[in-house]
Amino acid sequence: MVSTKNVASESYFYDKPDEAEQKIEKALSVIESSFYPIHSKILANEDLGSLTSSERESLAYFVTVQEHRTREQRETIGDMMKQAKKRLYKEKLTDEFKERYGIDKWDTEEEIKSLHLSTFKQIPLYAEILLQMKWILFINRTLMPFWSSDHPINRFNPVDAKPYGNLGLLCKGIEIHFPLSPGVILSFCDPLIYKVLPNRYEMKDIQNLIFENWLQVAHSTRYIFSNDNDFSLAEKILRDNPSLGDINRKRIEVH
Question: pLDDT tens for residues 196-231?
Fold first, then answer.
């Protein structure tokens, strides 16, 4: 048997093997440790009103880190870089231009990792934005459990903003979904559109559960986690959308 911690992690994903101190790994471990008591408090009370301002700040920071740190996030960045390189190579670029901007290296694992780690610098800003959003706790009152995955924090937006993107934290209609347990999901939403919604909502419609679990399947890299052994829904989702099971699938569009 393999633990979820082992299957959802990779050695030296953030640091290099020759960096003995593994500074980033240790820093992330400290952030995780601060989350556990807050997580337990939310599950025990099923109420966000019990959180102090300090606990909210810690939770916002943890959620932002958790979203940025995954393999799926790196795969998305890699997809963006590969598509951008392909798009630029359709233009007539001089060798000087290619060398100046290192375009030939854009799709290398080393360059993608470097760019991924550089996004961590924005974590304090993103955490501050989360603090200003509408927080809603969804309590599961159905027989189907909420799932989690190796990329548990997912964005969704019902507002079509084409030709522009709609998944930025400041986009109209943005929603962020984070399963805390099989029975509880924490969501961060557009503070204007969703301001009239309650801070706590009991979810009784099975279709809402199916949607939440669809998000986990659609945005995971390899693994889905559940407290039961029924993955028939995941199998159906993958039958209907085979590309979701491909680790090299196209994740974004570069125009």
Answer: 999 999 999 999 999 999 999 999 999 999 999 999
Give the start-to-end residue ranges of the domains of the chain.
19-79+120-245
**Quick check: 28 pLDDT over 70?**
yes
pLDDT tens-place string over residues 155-175: 999 999 988 899 999 999 999
Here the tokens at position 249 are 């699938």
Which residues, at least 6 apart from 15, have a Cβ–Cβ distance to it below 8 Å?
A: 22, 23, 24, 25
133 near 193, Cβ under 8 Å? no
Which are the contacts of 180, defined by CB distance < 8 A and separation ≥ 6? 39, 42, 43, 186
C-alpha span between 56 and 231 (Å, rounded): 33
Kindly state the DSSP code that residue 126 receives in the 8-state scheme: H
Listed residue (123, 116, 145, 134) closest to 63, CA to CA: 123
What pTM did the predictor assign? 0.88
For residues 150 and 216, what is the distance between their CA atoms, to the nearest angstrom? 9
Cβ distance 115 to 81 under 8 Å? Answer: yes
Instruction: Please answer whether residues 206 and 142 qualify as being in contact, where contact means their C-beta atoms are separated by less than 8 angstroms.
Output: yes
Separation CA 52–CA 178 (nearest Å): 19
| Tokens found for residue 73 | 């996030």
For residue 244, which of 151, 180, 121 has the smallest C-alpha distance?
A: 151
The Cα–Cα gap between 254 and 56 comes to 35
